[in-house]
């Protein structure tokens, strides 16, 4: 096995044109360079550089060997870079996009712990009220909750499924009555998420596998979860919201879950980013940090909501 330093010195001599030029560029004695190249030649049993008292030139086999040595040194540099990046302390700036309620209820505690452990990382958190264009917006990563993933140009990392809940305010139920069957949802005012089809449905499934699809005509449609949340709290209409958004308002009696015997398609809690490769140590560390902790946050949210739902809800007396 040839010494990699000998190979490096040989490549420098070839590229710089002479032992003298390579000696000056590398700060290594000309005699030392000559010795290292001669040792390489002896190990290979070939003459790589023809030398005379006046000049030297690369032999034909030396030229071919040089081309392969360049590739070898580039590969060696790449392997070293892998180790250097893995060992490098995360530092620098990360640009993150996130919906407001997701940031407040799920990401905030994870982000605080991350920044405590990695003080050399700065996070620019852009609270978005719509689904951002990750690449055009210059974001390193964006968080989303969607029941389906349509953008195949991005890399997705899923953290789990978050149940969706159909909820209404006590005020709305006092005015319009509490539904006991899916068909009765039609008489309640509703809110919806903007979609390309322009039609809105509640997709419901019972524990025994029965499904029902109920069309509704929302008085407000938006792709902003915060707007829908405020509207349902204010009694404008019922809405389908992620479980992590509903937990506290249900526990406090500000929202009431509808049709508990029926479930809605869950939302996929995930992050998207432009590529699997070329991440800075800071971004790679952040992605892994969130991936380790987000499922735990989701489980705690779900378990807390189940515990609250198991307790008697006083508001139910008013709705039958």
Strand portion, in percent? Answer: 15-25%
Query: How many helices?
Result: 10
For the largest sheet, list the strands in their spatial order: 4-3-5-15-6
Low-pLDDT stretches: 305-320
Cα radius of gyration in angstroms: 32 Å
Q: Tell me the series of helices and strands, N- to C-terminal.
A: HHHEEHEHEEEEHEEEEHEHEEEHH
Biggest beta-sheet profile: 5 strands, mixed
The number of domains is 3
Query: For the record, what CATH class of the largest domain applies?
Result: Alpha Beta
CATH topology of the largest domain: D-Maltodextrin-Binding Protein, domain 2
Q: CATH architecture of the largest domain, please?
A: 3-Layer(aba) Sandwich
Could you characterize what this model shows?
By secondary structure, the chain is an alpha+beta fold. It folds into three domains: 4-85, Arc Repressor Mutant, subunit A (Orthogonal Bundle); 92-162 and 269-301, 3-Layer(aba) Sandwich (D-Maltodextrin-Binding Protein, domain 2); 164-265, D-Maltodextrin-Binding Protein, domain 2. The protein is built from ten helices and 15 strands. It has helices at 4-16, 19-26, 30-44, 60-87, 100-117, 170-176, 225-233, 243-251, 281-310, 316-319; strands spanning 49-51, 56-58, 92-99, 121-128, 141-146, 155-162, 164-168, 191-192, 200-206, 211-216, 220-221, 239-242, 256-257, 262-263, 267-273. The protein has a five-stranded mixed beta sheet, with helices on one face. Strands 12-7-13 form a three-stranded antiparallel beta sheet. It is rod-shaped. Residues 305-320 have low confidence and may be disordered.
């Amino acid at each position: 096995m040839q010494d990699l330093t000998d190979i490096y010195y040989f490549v420098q001599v070839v590229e710089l044109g002479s032992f003298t030029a390579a000696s000056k560029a590398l700060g290594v004695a000309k005699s030392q360079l000559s010795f290292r190249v001669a040792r390489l030649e002896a190990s290979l049993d070939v003459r790589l550089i023809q030398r005379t008292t006046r000049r030297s030139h690369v032999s034909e086999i030396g030229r071919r060997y040089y081309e392969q040595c360049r590739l070898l040194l580039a590969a060696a540099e790449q392997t070293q870079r892998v180790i250097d990046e893995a060992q490098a302390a995360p530092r620098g700036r990360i640009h993150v996009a996130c919906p407001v309620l997701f940031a407040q209820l799920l990401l905030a505690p994870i982000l605080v712990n991350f920044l405590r452990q990695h003080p050399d990382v700065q996070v620019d958190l852009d609270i978005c009220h719509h689904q951002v264009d990750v690449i055009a917006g210059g974001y390193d990563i964006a968080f989303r909750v969607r029941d389906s993933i349509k953008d195949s140009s991005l890399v997705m990392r899923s953290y789990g499924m978050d149940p969706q809940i159909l909820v209404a305010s006590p005020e709305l139920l006092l005015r319009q009555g509490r539904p006991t069957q899916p068909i009765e949802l039609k008489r309640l005012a509703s809110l919806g998420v903007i979609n390309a089809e322009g039609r809105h449905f509640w997709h419901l499934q019972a524990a025994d596998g029965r499904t029902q699809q109920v069309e509704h005509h929302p008085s407000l449609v938006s792709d902003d979860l915060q707007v829908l949340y405020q509207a349902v709290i204010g009694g404008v209409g019922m809405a389908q919201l992620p479980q992590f958004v509903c937990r506290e308002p249900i526990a406090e009696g500000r929202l009431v879950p509808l049709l508990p015997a029926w479930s809605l398609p869950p939302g996929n809690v995930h992050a998207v980013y432009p590529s699997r490769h070329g991440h800075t140590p800071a971004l790679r560390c952040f992605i892994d940090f969130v991936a380790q902790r987000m499922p735990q946050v989701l489980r705690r949210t779900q378990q807390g909501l189940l515990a609250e739902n198991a307790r008697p809800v006083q508001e139910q007396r008013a709705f039958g």
